[in-house]
């Protein structure tokens, strides 16, 4: 992301500046739990596995995992390649065969039609995609896919995955572009033992895999140690016998769950499953970024991947899925997860199908008499509305036709849907009805007590919309032992923009948390602190057993001289920083990884390397706005203002409506004294990105400094309307209103500030002062 910087115009002497930047000293540094990785193993292939596990191998055949990726044959290709044509926004594509080879004639990387042979088929149902081989080891996924559903369901047709967009051949989202590249986007989870093999020097791939599809060792890990163990092992096995695997994968799904007594509403697990059971599924069923190639399924996700938190646009404010989040982040919010349910308690891992059909799956643990009855769901038995998933796992279509169930398994809250802007399961089925109608219906069925059920939605929604007023609610979520760790980590990250002295104790406590995602979020909370406090807080986590935590600690400390760190931590810092750099280099085919490296080098004073990293990001994606802004900022740090403006104008030639670039250009124009041009650029940035309160704030300050206080106040008041309880906006409004003699307006805004910061004595003193002057 673009680095935050102060506007170049003279800033009003803000009454509240001191407590916007105050930090207190930290207490005792945190420790980190220790752990060791088991000895490695090598891949042996599914044929070796099937020799002893024939039943499991047979169940796997024909599963979505088996059919994740295949070579194209008459049996595997589902689409119509009988000279079928498909037209999309002026491009006519034709699907045909020459001998045994399947082809598509469509627009290529130069925009001209050409014949492309199909190298692999990708997936099976409800759609199938097709991969084309390009120079440099690339496999590109066609944006035209085959709808493999039956004709009666609307299938057996070609369709475009980006039907609502015009994607030209120069766009990175074009099927020949970087973001439709299999090696970059898809390969890790559709093959076994994959090595991406990206070479940054040539921007090419030598990708290879142990098996083309998702086979045994994708979930169990490399099997050589297990195969050796099996040669001599015999029953009864020792309880501590790892059977040659790094992590256990048995869920004990059949015997683990029992109803504790007759008439009990819920079954209980006899003992917690090993976390590895769920972690096995996590890496490929989560919205996440990659930290390391993963050969040991079952390890904590944060050791190999960076999980997306419950933030927009991926999720709605109440945590429901919005964009495609691949199940894991939803499931981590659920009561099922908190009660110990594993993925394999519900899904047979070899067939990848549910263990029972319909409500029978749920009534294995939920008493059928209590829950699978009209007295509970108030729908006619055996109808769609009587299905548990209809209310508790509503679907959202991704890739146009792929309906995915939301695995947060939440109780519907139509009373909150309008307030939060989130979907309502009831009116998803009852088309034409409003959530308020559904809420009244639930009142009639259950009374109004259901409206009092706790929900994370109001607190997270406030975190997105209510500025500093959201802090108490976010603080309560972050500290709540009753909340899932993912919710707590999300709340902690939302607290970052509001960090003040009273929140430092919370950050320190969260650095001790058992969950790595919470520790990572807590590290983000302490990043704005001064170097001494950052070292004291983050230093111990440089040795964290989870890779994601220790590299985040290194990132937070980057740029601080090693001499400011305790001598005992310096070697751990170097190792963790090396890991962070390796993560970015491994993902060097992603523009953002190169920008991350540039940001790191700039913090370390390595200017030439930072510029090279930003330029490489732009070579990969010339439309990556953050790289343009950060490259310009690198020039600014060296005092090269001509290069700053030239860089920003070059970016704007490609992205003329980029608010980030226009805002940065406005600041550059301020620095060279062209206030008229700066006002125009800053105004346009604020107009294009009304969700960015800082852009409105900087524009207003610029107007004020240009001698246009009335317009400045109007801009600030409009921004305050959009972003209530934004401390910076309120503080600036108070200062400007006092300056213009509008004491009544200043008092009103001071009272709003006091609502947002009720424990700050300086705000209370300000309110008292303004009240006396009325």
From TrEMBL:
Record SMART domains: TPR
GO molecular function ontology, one term from the record: oxidoreductase activity
Entry-linked SUPFAM superfamilies: Multiheme cytochromes, TPR-like
PROSITE patterns on file: TPR (PS50005), TPR_REGION (PS50293)
Domain (Cytochrome c-552/4): residue spans on this chain: 183-221
TPR repeat coordinates: 591-624, 659-692
InterPro entries assigned to the protein according to its UniProt record, in alphabetical order: ARM-like, Cyt_c-552/4, Multihaem_cyt_sf, Multiheme_Cytochr_ET, Paired_CXXCH_1, TPR-like_helical_dom_sf, TPR_rpt
Signal is among the record's keywords: yes
Name of a matching Pfam family: TPR_16
Location of the Doubled CXXCH motif domain: 339-370
Record key words, sorted: Signal, TPR repeat
Name the record gives this protein: Putative CXXCH cytochrome family protein
């Amino acid at each position: 992301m673009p680095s935050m910087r102060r506007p170049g115009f003279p800033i009003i002497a803000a009454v509240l500046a001191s407590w916007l930047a105050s930090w207190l000293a930290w207490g005792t540094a945190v420790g980190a739990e220790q752990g060791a990785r088991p000895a490695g193993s090598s891949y042996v292939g599914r044929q070796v596995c099937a020799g002893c596990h024939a039943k499991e191998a047979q169940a796997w055949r024909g599963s979505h995992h088996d059919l994740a990726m295949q070579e194209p044959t008459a049996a595997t290709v589902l689409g119509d390649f009988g000279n079928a044509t498909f037209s999309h926004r002026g491009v006519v594509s034709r699907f045909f065969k020459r001998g045994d080879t399947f082809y598509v004639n469509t627009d290529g990387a130069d925009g001209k039609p050409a014949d492309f042979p199909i190298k692999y088929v990708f997936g099976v149902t409800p759609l199938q995609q097709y991969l084309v081989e390009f120079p440099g080891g690339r496999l590109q996924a066609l944006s035209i896919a085959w709808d493999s559903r039956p004709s009666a369901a609307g299938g057996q047709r070609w369709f475009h995955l980006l039907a609502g967009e015009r994607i030209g051949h120069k766009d990175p989202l074009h099927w020949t572009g970087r973001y439709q590249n299999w090696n970059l986007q898809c390969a890790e989870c559709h093959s076994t033992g994959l090595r991406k093999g990206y070479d940054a020097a040539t921007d090419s791939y030598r990708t290879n895999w142990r098996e083309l599809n998702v086979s045994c060792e994708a979930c169990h890990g490399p099997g050589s140690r297990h195969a050796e163990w099996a040669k001599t092992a015999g029953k009864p096995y020792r309880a501590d016998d790892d059977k040659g695997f790094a992590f256990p994968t048995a869920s004990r799904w059949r015997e683990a769950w029992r109803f504790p007594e007759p008439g009990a509403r819920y079954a209980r697990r006899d003992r917690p499953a090993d976390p590895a059971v769920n972690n096995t599924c996590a890496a490929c069923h989560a919205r996440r970024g990659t930290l390391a190639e993963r050969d040991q399924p079952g390890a904590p996700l944060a050791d190999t991947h960076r999980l997306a938190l419950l933030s927009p646009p991926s999720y709605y404010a109440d945590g429901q899925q919005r964009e495609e989040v691949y199940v894991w982040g939803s499931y981590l919010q659920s009561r099922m997860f908190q009660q110990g349910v594993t993925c394999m308690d519900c899904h047979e891992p070899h067939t990848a199908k549910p263990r029972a059909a319909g409500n029978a799956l749920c009534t294995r643990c939920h008493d059928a008499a209590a829950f699978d009855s009209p007295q509970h769901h108030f729908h006619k038995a055996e109808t769609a509305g009587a299905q548990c998933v209809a209310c508790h796992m509503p679907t959202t279509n991704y890739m146009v036709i792929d309906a995915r169930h939301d695995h947060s398994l939440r109780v519907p809250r139509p009373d909150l849907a309008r307030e939060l802007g989130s979907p309502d399961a009831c009116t998803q089925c009852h088309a034409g009805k409003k959530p308020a109608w559904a809420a009244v219906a639930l009142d009639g069925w259950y009374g109004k007590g259901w409206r009092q059920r706790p929900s994370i939605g109001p607190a997270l929604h406030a975190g997105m919309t209510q500025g500093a007023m959201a802090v108490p609610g976010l603080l309560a979520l972050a500290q709540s032992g009753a909340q899932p760790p993912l919710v707590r980590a999300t709340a902690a990250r939302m607290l970052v923009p509001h960090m003040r002295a009273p929140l430092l104790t919370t950050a320190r406590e969260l650095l001790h948390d058992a969950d790595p995602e919470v520790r990572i979020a807590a590290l983000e909370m302490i990043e704005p602190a001064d170097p001494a406090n950052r070292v004291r807080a983050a230093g111990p986590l440089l040795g964290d057993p989870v890779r994601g935590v220790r590299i985040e600690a290194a990132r937070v400390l980057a740029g601080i001289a090693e001499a400011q760190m305790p001598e005992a931590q310096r070697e751990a810092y170097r190792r963790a920083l090396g890991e962070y750099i390796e993560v970015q280099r491994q993902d060097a085919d992603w523009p953002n990884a190169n920008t991350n490296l540039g940001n790191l080098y700039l913090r370390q004073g390595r200017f030439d390397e930072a510029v090279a990293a930003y330029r490489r990001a732009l070579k990969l994606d010339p439309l990556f706005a953050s790289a343009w802004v950060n490259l310009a900022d690198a020039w600014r740090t060296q005092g090269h203002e001509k290069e700053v403006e030239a860089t920003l104008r070059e970016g704007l030639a490609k992205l003329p409506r980029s608010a980030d670039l226009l805002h940065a250009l406005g600041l550059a124009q301020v620095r060279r004294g062209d206030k008229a041009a700066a006002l125009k650029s800053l105004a346009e940035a604020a107009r294009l990105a009304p969700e960015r309160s800082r852009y409105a704030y900087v524009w207003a300050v610029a107007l004020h400094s240009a001698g246009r206080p009335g317009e400045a106040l109007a801009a600030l008041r409009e921004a305050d309307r959009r972003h209530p309880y934004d401390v910076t906006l309120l503080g600036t409004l108070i200062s400007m209103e006092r300056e213009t003699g509008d004491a009544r307006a200043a008092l009103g805004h001071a009272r709003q500030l006091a609502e947002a910061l009720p424990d700050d004595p300086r705000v209370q003193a300000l309110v008292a002062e303004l009240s006396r002057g009325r």
